[in-house]
Amino acid sequence: MFESLSNKLTGVFDRLKGRGALTEDDVNEAMREVRVALLEADVALPVVKDFVAKVKERAIGQEVIRSVTPGQQVVKIVHDNLVELLGAQAEELNLGVTPPAVIMMLGLQGSGKTTTSGKLAKRLKDVDRKKVLLASLDVRRPAAQEQLAILGEQVGVASLAIIAGQQPVEITKRAMETARLEGYDVLILDTAGRLSIDDELMAEAAAVRDVAQPHETLLVVDAMTGQDAVNTAKHFEEKIGVSGIVLTRIDGDARGGAALSMRAITGRPIKFLGTGEKTDALEVYHPDRLAGRILDMGDVVSFVEKAAATMDQDVAEDMAKKFITGKGFDFDDLAKQMQQMRKMGGLSSMMGMLPGMGKIKDQIKNANIDEKQIKRTESIVYSMTKAERKNADLLNASRKRRIAQGAGVEVSEVNRLIKQFLEMQKMMKQLQRLGEGGFLRSMGGMMMGGRK
Fold it and tell me: Which of 4, 77, 279, 434 yields a CA-CA distance of 20 to 30 A from 171?
């Protein structure tokens, strides 16, 4: 989402860091470029003005201009102010109440509110170990209640039984009674949306709020709508009251201004980011981590958390042994690596979390290393017999033709994969000679981008 902004900012800072000393004019010129980059990313003008003024005031200080690494110091100042702008720290849901904790979901039609309700229910069940009840209050949009019920089934969460003809306030009362009697920890109320804000929408939401007395009122807004998302948040905060914001479609092509402006203009924290279509594509919002991604410093903490949550422990340990010993690595292991990569959201998702990867994204794109290629690799491997997957020496011309036909690819693609596999085996033999300590040092150098 922040690719364009990230590229422009890192370009500015690379030029600063390339100079041995900085003058006040250098800082002023850099701040002008930062200002333009933020405005082009659709960040609200008042927010940009305040941000640039704060950074400039600190960056022109003598302790920066005369420091040994002034360029690095300026980048740190921008990072710290960006974190402050984004909200300083992650803010958790208020669930420390007498059950059930009531979460009221607000938003316009098309913002992803119902989908987000399902994602949040899954997260609360899987991560926080809560017993969750979903209830749809949307009696206007066709099949809206059925949609939430289906989502509930998909994520393994109960949903309130649908009674035809009941209105939102009646459904709210029934949902609260059911949640209390059946011992639910959390009740999520998915309210109705409209194509635009109107008096009817606000009156209905206010009536539900007054009955439910929610502990959290989360507004779901589409990041792709830019400053319209910020304006929507302002209206809901003024009319209904909002405790937190969920930004959806953060993985899209939006310029990012909504995320950067939201906290400063509404005064309300962003609590979650919707990062994709899958039911687990909902991240806790960490301002410091997002700032790191924008400035191409990476987000290694999120990377490790995601790996820990998605990777099969036994598979990971077995793979580590094979890397260290150099023994037994075969095509089945290669396929397992591809599966783990897809579980983590694919190559593009992983790249965004690693430091300095923004600078080589174009090279990766030009190399055609995409999610489809990962799937094609799996198809090729699974078109092999068990014996072929264990022993690459068996793969003669006729076997390669059969495998290519089974995977729906050209023989040249099978040859390319075999070549890559043999190179990996060769690398493992080299790492084996380093021993475990040398292996870890070598991998550390690779992760930091060290290439000859």
Answer: 279
